[in-house]
Amino acid sequence: MVVGALVAGPSGLLHPVSSGAVSPGFSIVTLPALDQAFNPTVLDYTVRCTGATTTTVQTAGSDVVSIGGTVLPGPADASVPLVAGQGVAITDGGTTYHVRCLPSDFPTYTASVTGTPQQANGYFLTLGGYAIVFDTDGVPVWWLKDSTSHSPFDAKFLDPTTVAYWDGANEYQLRGLDGSLQGTVGGGSLPIDLHDLQRLPDGNYLAIQNYTRNCPADPTQCVDLSSWGLSSQEAIFDDVIVELNPQNQVVWSWDVADHIDVATADVNWHNLFPDVIHMNSIQYDGNGGIIFSARHLDAVYRIDMATGVVTWKLGGSLTPESLTVSGDPYVDAGGQLFSGQHYARLLPDGSLTVHDNGFLANRQPRAVHFTIDPNAMTATEIGQVSDPRTAAALCCGSAELLSGGDWVVDWGYNDFTTELNAEGVPQITITYPGTFSYRSGDVLATVDAMRQGMDAMVPPAVNVTTPFGVAIGGLPPATRGSRYGPVTLRAVNLGISASPHTTTLRWDKGVVVAPATALPQGMTLFPNGVLSGTPSKNLAGGRSQVVVKVTEAVTTLTSKGRPITTRTTVQVAIPLTIN
């Protein structure tokens, strides 16, 4: 058996994926390896290339391919000096795959597609100092880093070409897909809270401000919390919804504590005084009202912008504005509807979705869907989903109901985001161990537009070379205690010797640092490149490798016809699975 496939050289990075009329048997391997296994129907890939001087890209298949604009016969082998954020395009049979280099500090993640996601262009998350768009194959296709503390936070698309995120300086930055700064909202003397920002149809913005009320200096600013065992003149941390014009001027505002009795509305979060409200989402409803979620009031409210009146309330303590809830199992059992909820969103049909964290109620987070009848003052729960993999979520999260019936849910303090169908079955799960995303946002840009944005930040690779190397893909798995091979390793891009001389190869074990071994115990590599033997039964199963080196001897002639032999040695680690 001859192993053919992919790349050689000192190290590598890159990978394209395709969808379309590709040649039979076409595939891509890279060194460093692709983060995702190659699939001909997947067009985008990433590689962690920043520790390598070059990324090796190899293709299988006999068709002519283009790597970074360089046309090569297939199977092709090329080295590309990728840097962080840079991509390389690989085209076969009219289908172009895209491989992009991840920065060295890019968050660790995995993605598992277990169904058919309905989300259009992907999932917008904030992880470890990055705003990241993952496509529906779970591949990062766009990202932007902000090194400011707690930034980026609450990243979102405002339109197909503009993203916004809170930057740690009490403002939202507006940036193009090319990373360029387009403007800011808030900041300076107009500090904006990090929890939400919405652009209105007329170009103005809705945002949240918060401040400590001026008590006792101004008695009208004091809040009576004597029922909590505190004083009748307390200075709370208040929340204000503000409307800002494009010139960063406040044209309308609404203060929570001026309209809601927080002493009776905050039932369960007294221990977090003075943060007694904690607004975490706002939305203009298109009909003169604003819907907001207040985590420490365990409730969602609608207010009328013209009058400032609360027109209805969902969850929390009972008030005259409270909607009567039916269909919820917790309410039916005498419990509370929400506990520390986030992300209340009114849908075009007038129904409402909420991410219920359930934290102080000691239950798993869930995504909940209601119909609202403001005339009858009722809310009927018509659907909910949860994920048994979630743990308690003190903070954060979002739940978006797609038009096709799936839910996209960021589970707050949990380390994954999922798209679930209506029955709660995961269609895709993106996991990011050790961190969390505040929420998942809609992606309004096309994947192609995001590729172009990334290419504008770091121009795509076109400096492609084809050095002598070793094919790094295609080794069949080895079984402990069973005869392996023989398998013949393959070198690529060999030099051509002058007639009558021939180019020769000599294979050997690579040089490694003890206690590592170049070959798994029981396996032998012969000088002609044949790998065989019987892997020891004592070997650990799973991912392993064979470290080999090969020396190429190329003989050329001087101008006087004298032979000169040039030797080149390359060492590479070839992945091997041991069963």
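Second entry:
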Amino acid sequence: MASRARPVILLLLWCVTGAVGAQQMGEYSFENAPDGTPTFTQVLRWSADPNVRSYEVALETAAGEPVLDTRLEEPILRLHLGPGAYRFRIVLYNLLGKPEMELPWRTFTVLMAKQPQVTGVSPKELNLEDVNLKVTMSGHDLERGAKVSLTKADQPTESIAGTIRECNGTSSLRVEFPAWRLAPGRYSVVITNPGGLWIELPEALVVRYQAPTDMAVSAGYSPWVSLYDAWYLQAWPGTFFPLSATARFSSYFIKRPFGYFGAELDLTGLMMRGGTDAASVTSTIGLASVRAIYKYPLSPQFAAGGRIGGGIALSNHQFTYQNGAGPAISSANLFVSTGLFLQYYPMKKLFVETSVDWTHQFMQGFSEGSLMPCLLVGTVF
């Protein structure tokens, strides 16, 4: 971390034109006295004129109180002023030593420049795939109008300026950086207050092409369509069972240009009612599976992929006869499943998924197969 030490006074920039050309305020310097107290020097300079022998400079406070009245042969005046509003006027003297022209009064303000202090940078990593690259700088004396820039470790002479989007007093700045100018690598952050003091945070920010891992949570509606098995098809009058819901936790931990690979935990709950003339049956089934997943981004808004895996299905069948409740049958069965999906991202972190999964349960004495069309809403974090 490097910075210019201690607060200093900065003279704001003013430019006026006249017979002596541009007058400039804004240069300053400082040095510490033997007792450690900083001594501030502000500079007023203007263009020299060969027809001017000397310059008379009058300096007053904004209220009109005299501060300085001096004659100079060189077009430069060094001052030691405290914070406040001031005005100055220059009178030009010709080669005969006579006053030739009086320039109008010009005002300027001396500000107290503060040393920015940074206690936190969040996030510490940016991913170019996010497009909107915003970073929050937290600390003290982060003034409105500060400039924030990045320098890459292997290109220290090139500076990338950020745009301040939010300013929370002097305690935090929210800065957005142009994605098109950034490349993966480590960057130092430089914050410069309007007064000129600055602070550098070496390699405080890492830029990646994309996040190394994506995690997502989704949930939604997943009706059950029974495809085959004589017992299931005879026990229920239909093959479509709408009372079903699914929740998924997905993690993509291998991300390559040809697609993302990961794993997924799927939890599905299903209720089915049916039976025969002799008895009715109410079944509840819970399926828990772990599946491998693959996703390929088709565009910033769309992605497609597939999943395959298996797990365990917990089933409970409650029979009711004409003369009362009958026995309940519970079982735990292995199953396999596979499916395809399409995702739409209306926003960067929010997606809607449509999918179709095929499931095959291995039950004692028979097997059951079904399709599950799903409509889910999820978020990436």
